[in-house]
Amino acid sequence: MNTITEGLLSAAKLVVTLDPDLVEISLRSLRVTLTALVVASIIAIPLGTVLAIQRFRYRRTVIALLNAFMGLPPVVVGLVIYVLLSRAGPLGVLGLLFTPTAMVIAQVVIITPLIASVTHQAMRDLWADYHDLLISLNATKRQRIMTLIYDGRRTLLTAVLAGFGRAIGEVGAIMIVGGNIEHATRVLTTAIALETGKGDFALALGLGFVLIGMAIAVNLAIHALSGTEREGRW
Amino acid sequence: MNILPLRLTAAEVRRRGKRLLGPVDLTLGTGGVTVIVGPNGSGKTTLLRVMHGVERLSSGSANWAVPDRDAQARQAFVFQSPIMLRRSVAANLRYPLALHGVARADQDVAVTEWAAKIGLSDALTTPAPRLSGGERQKLALARALIGKPQVLFLDEPCASLDGAATLAIEGLLRDARDAGVRIVMATHDMGQARRLADDALFVLGGTIAEAASRDRFFDRPQHPALASFLNGDIVT
Ligand SMILES: Nc1ncnc2c1ncn2[C@@H]1O[C@H](COP(=O)(O)OP(=O)(O)OP(=O)(O)O)[C@@H](O)[C@H]1O
Ligand SMILES: [Mg+2]
């Protein structure tokens, strides 16, 4: 039997039998990534919107930084966070290294620039459309931001989903800051890396298929919840 | 509270070293319809935006009878190409009311009333960007009037509309005027200008070349350029 079929079979077996280890690490993957996604979105969406509508002194610099941060290698992000969180580091007292929280922090750092940057581009176009009307209606700054976020929600959803995709599949940074500890910080991607290293390709592939399935399921679920397809484009 | 008159004093708009408007001295008194005509690029839109306070003056001043903040809240503007929020027709109508904290029940009443006036009662849930050009223009006008402004600025509200749609808009404008709304409108349609104007301004090269009551403006123009403009000659 070739490796792919074996992988599919072992994935099917893991899922059908609701393998406890699989369930545990899948749920942890989801929890870490969704937490990171919520935190990152809360930071990135208002940030991207403000960058689109507000002129201030270092606006261009911030945008350039964001774009640069989008390309940060996750391994380096992991390394920096490791140094910050390690016992001797400035945040060492918090004792966060090798916990899911550390993994959330790493993912937030990785996806916030991505979501903020896509948000900024989308909101810039919408603002060009709305600018005169909102100024004319005397909308306060807060009302302008809320209006743009609300009317741009479909594009924002795409930004958030892109962030989810990047975070759920990330391995380098969370391996470093999480440590891939069984029953503590092991998630799908780090488990895949581990099994591949051990030479258990079938199990690694099985986990990989579960990961892909989960990513697709979350995408579909979010789309269904927000009614993107039903209402179509405005 | 009456926000009028509006006084422009030596108002000038310059951008990148080029003078787009001015110097303009003008007093906008209470009541009636003022129509602004002039060739393309003469500065009609810029003048309207200056009056509305959305175009920064390079020099000179524009003062309402009350502080700017109070005056702002009592004006509305219909832009040359109507800006539709990416929401339903009802949500577009509701938007200015919601911004200014009108109670939900009162919003509903006003939305129903205005949708009926512009013939969009059956389209309340339609996304506004899907409306036809004429419907958008009517929606933009209703959205401007729903907040009961004292002064309404319109920038070519009937450009690219056919006769019936134009008449519908003019009907709404007459109703608004009769209800006491001060109207200032730029248009390229001389028939419309004659039909609606109480007085008129001729803008040429960024300045007001002539300002007069309707009959004098259209029947006895003083400025030679206005005479040829009304004749249909090309004026630049
Ligand atoms: N932000 C700007 N920067 C530079 N030039 C501008 C700007 N806005 C307008 N202009 C120029 O100012 C002049 C007057 O423009 P304006 O839109 O007021 O003319 P208009 O009379 O409304 O013309 P139309 O009949 O075509 O609508 C034009 O030459 C235009 O190109
Ligand atoms: Mg214009």
UniProtKB/TrEMBL annotation, chain A:
<feature type="transmembrane region" description="Helical">
    <location>
        <begin position="32"/>
        <end position="53"/>
    </location>
</feature>
<feature type="transmembrane region" description="Helical">
    <location>
        <begin position="91"/>
        <end position="116"/>
    </location>
</feature>
<feature type="transmembrane region" description="Helical">
    <location>
        <begin position="201"/>
        <end position="225"/>
    </location>
</feature>
<dbReference type="InterPro" id="IPR000515">
    <property type="entry name" value="MetI-like"/>
</dbReference>
<feature type="transmembrane region" description="Helical">
    <location>
        <begin position="156"/>
        <end position="181"/>
    </location>
</feature>
<feature type="domain" description="ABC transmembrane type-1">
    <location>
        <begin position="26"/>
        <end position="222"/>
    </location>
</feature>
<feature type="transmembrane region" description="Helical">
    <location>
        <begin position="65"/>
        <end position="85"/>
    </location>
</feature>
<keyword id="KW-0812">Transmembrane</keyword>
<keyword id="KW-0813">Transport</keyword>
<dbReference type="Pfam" id="PF00528">
    <property type="entry name" value="BPD_transp_1"/>
</dbReference>
<dbReference type="GO" id="GO:0055085">
    <property type="term" value="P:transmembrane transport"/>
</dbReference>
<keyword id="KW-1133">Transmembrane helix</keyword>
<protein>
    <submittedName>
        <fullName>Tungstate transport system permease protein</fullName>
    </submittedName>
</protein>
<dbReference type="InterPro" id="IPR049783">
    <property type="entry name" value="ABC_perm_TupB-like"/>
</dbReference>
<dbReference type="InterPro" id="IPR035906">
    <property type="entry name" value="MetI-like_sf"/>
</dbReference>
<keyword id="KW-0472">Membrane</keyword>
<dbReference type="GO" id="GO:0005886">
    <property type="term" value="C:plasma membrane"/>
</dbReference>
<comment type="similarity">
    <text>Belongs to the binding-protein-dependent transport system permease family.</text>
</comment>
From TrEMBL, chain B:
<dbReference type="GO" id="GO:0005886">
    <property type="term" value="C:plasma membrane"/>
</dbReference>
<keyword id="KW-0547">Nucleotide-binding</keyword>
<dbReference type="InterPro" id="IPR017871">
    <property type="entry name" value="ABC_transporter-like_CS"/>
</dbReference>
<protein>
    <submittedName>
        <fullName>Phosphate ABC transporter ATP-binding protein, PhoT family (TC 3.A.1.7.1)</fullName>
    </submittedName>
</protein>
<keyword id="KW-0067">ATP-binding</keyword>
<dbReference type="InterPro" id="IPR015854">
    <property type="entry name" value="ABC_transpr_LolD-like"/>
</dbReference>
<dbReference type="GO" id="GO:0022857">
    <property type="term" value="F:transmembrane transporter activity"/>
</dbReference>
<dbReference type="GO" id="GO:0016887">
    <property type="term" value="F:ATP hydrolysis activity"/>
</dbReference>
<dbReference type="InterPro" id="IPR003593">
    <property type="entry name" value="AAA+_ATPase"/>
</dbReference>
<dbReference type="Pfam" id="PF00005">
    <property type="entry name" value="ABC_tran"/>
</dbReference>
<dbReference type="InterPro" id="IPR003439">
    <property type="entry name" value="ABC_transporter-like_ATP-bd"/>
</dbReference>
<dbReference type="GO" id="GO:0005524">
    <property type="term" value="F:ATP binding"/>
</dbReference>
<feature type="domain" description="ABC transporter">
    <location>
        <begin position="6"/>
        <end position="230"/>
    </location>
</feature>
<dbReference type="InterPro" id="IPR027417">
    <property type="entry name" value="P-loop_NTPase"/>
</dbReference>
